[in-house]
Amino acid sequence: MGLKDQLLDDIKQAMKAKEQAKLAVLRLLSAAIKQKEVDSRAEVSDQDILAIIEKQIKQRKEAAAQFQQGGREDSANQELAEAQLLSTYLPEQLSEDEIASEIQRVVASVGATGPQDMGKVMGPIKTALQGRADMSLVSKLVKKALIGQTHVRHNLGYPLKFKSLMEDFFC
């Protein structure tokens, strides 16, 4: 059973159980999926549905942050509850260590040497971790890994005296 079929079954169950809050969230998700299908004029895949769910979760979290800044805790809690409900449709999230090891694997495979290679690394990482990791966290970890690559590259290539002269000249 695909995600779309599971979503439709959950909508039916929510209707039967008269769970209005859950039903509203699932209907909005279903509408977003249908909109994507209309826009692309094709059936959406599970990967596309995962991307839509991630986008909906991100929107809910941003809205909750705005509500908290405005002092509306009840609305913020509702948005967070909706985000939690949507996250049940995502696969199990990877730990930070698992994400870091995947990043190291991709960095080595593409031969990235510094921050200028961010795009070369993010493409394969995004397809590999889609739906299993928060992409903002992944982006931060990739930047951290690539900055680490830059320092390693510079420290290995130059004699210490020349390196200190270069740092004095350029800094």
Characterise this structure:
- The chain is mostly helical.
- It contains eight helices and no strands.
- The longest helix is centred in the middle third of the chain and has 24 residues, at 46-69.
- The radius of gyration is 22 Å and the shape is globular.
- Mean pLDDT is 85; it is low at 151-163.
Structure in a nutshell:
The chain has 171 residues and is mostly helical.
Features:
171 residues; mainly alpha; 8 helices; 0% strand; globular
Number of helices, counting only DSSP H or I runs of 4 residues or more: 8
- Structural class, by secondary structure, is mainly alpha
Low-confidence sequence ranges? 151-163
Shape designation: globular
Cα separation of the termini: 58 Å
Helix-strand pattern: HHHHHHHH
Largest sheet: none
Q: Which whole number gives the mean pLDDT?
A: 85
Please report the total strand number as a whole number. 0
Q: What proportion of the residues form beta strands (DSSP E)? A: under 5%
- Radius of gyration (CA) equals 22 Å
Furnish the topology, listing elements before pairings.
Elements: H1 3-17, H2 20-40, H3 46-69, H4 73-87, H5 96-110, H6 118-129, H7 135-157, H8 160-170
Helix pairs in contact: 1-2, 3-4, 5-6, 5-7, 6-7
